[in-house]
Design brief:
The chain is an alpha/beta fold and 292 residues long. The protein contains nine helices and eleven strands. It has two domains: 194 residues, Spore Coat Polysaccharide Biosynthesis Protein SpsA, Chain A (Alpha-Beta Complex); 73 residues. The chain starts with 7 loop residues before the first strand and ends in an 11-residue tail after the last helix.
Length: 292
């Protein structure tokens, strides 16, 4: 059975996302089932969102699972052959979902795919530099990887790959999508971008703005931890260590600088970068959670 509105389920992992998630849901055709995994375990949010949207099922995760685990948790409830992973701060442009479905019906070989970001300055994919692309060509094209804020998974094809798993749950946030794409490419799988289908990504707006500082601390810790873990997993400990040292030394210098001039907010940000690196080097789990 090919991809269609009825054979596609959207999975959205939310965390204090009440400010933006309505616009995301409204941009998705109502025939498409939406599963929200709410990492903030907010029962009132669940009741309100399910009351407003008959096609939405909100599952409370009890604990903050992060992105990788949250996506895997949501995928367990998917009964269709295709799923689209979406961040709460993503909005589909008019007809983008139907354009995506129409184009993917023509590509039997795709395992992962994505619409294209409407902001050309911030592409949501990585491509081999040796493969030049005509920007005016609207045909789907193969890429190395895509950003995790909007990605279609061909579940039947992915499940056919021996010993393949979806998201590595060691990642709390950042690079879980790159890891998934790299493992798929290692198995010879195909990843496509569909230029006729466009999305707007607000970027960093998935969490209510009143929690910005706590989320910024979390982002800095996890970016450094995830980068080290990703590099260690795919290229070895020594590569990850050497690759992470410049950022570690830079963060240490800035930490002491902000300590001396008594700018506590900036000091704490660079402290989180230092701690993220040291925890990753020590082989500790991605344990930091925003204090919300």
């Amino acid at each position: 059975m090919s991809i269609s509105r009825q054979n596609l389920t959207a999975v959205i992992v939310s965390f204090k996302s009440d400010q933006v998630i309505d616009n995301c849901i409204r941009s998705i055709p109502s025939e498409i089932k939406i599963i929200i995994v709410d990492n903030s375990n907010d029962r009132k949010f669940k009741e309100n969102i399910e009351k407003k949207y008959p096609n939405v099922e909100c599952i409370l995760s009890l604990t903050n699972l992060g992105m990788g685990s949250g996506n895997n948790f949501g995928l367990k409830y998917v009964k269709t052959d295709f799923a689209i992973i979406i961040n709460p701060d993503v909005i589909f442009e008019e007809n983008s979902v139907d354009e995506l479905i129409s184009e993917l019906k023509k590509i039997e070989t795709f395992a992962i795919s994505a619409p294209i970001s409407s902001d050309a300055k911030y592409p949501n994919y990585k491509i081999d530099k040796k493969f030049l692309r005509n920007e005016n060509n609207l045909e789907p094209f193969k890429v190395k990887s895509i950003d995790g804020y909007a990605m279609v998974l061909n579940l039947k094809k992915l499940n056919e790959i021996e010993n393949f798993y979806f998201f590595d749950e060691n990642f709390f946030m950042y690079l879980e999508n790159d890891d998934l794409c790299k493992r798929l490419k290692n198995h010879g799988g195909n990843i496509f971008i569909v230029p006729k289908s466009k999305i707007n990504h607000l970027g960093g707006k998935a969490v209510n703005s009143k929690y910005n500082y706590e989320i910024e601390l979390s982002r800095n810790w996890h970016w450094v931890w995830s980068k080290f873990y990703f590099n260690k997993k795919h290229y070895g400990f020594l590569f990850a260590f050497i690759n992470g040292l410049p950022s570690f030394f830079s963060s240490t210098i800035k930490f002491f600088l902000y300590f001396l001039i008594k700018r506590n907010n900036e000091k704490q940000i660079y402290l989180q970068r230092i701690l993220g690196f040291l925890n990753a080097v020590a082989g500790k789990k991605s344990s930091y959670r925003p204090k919300i």
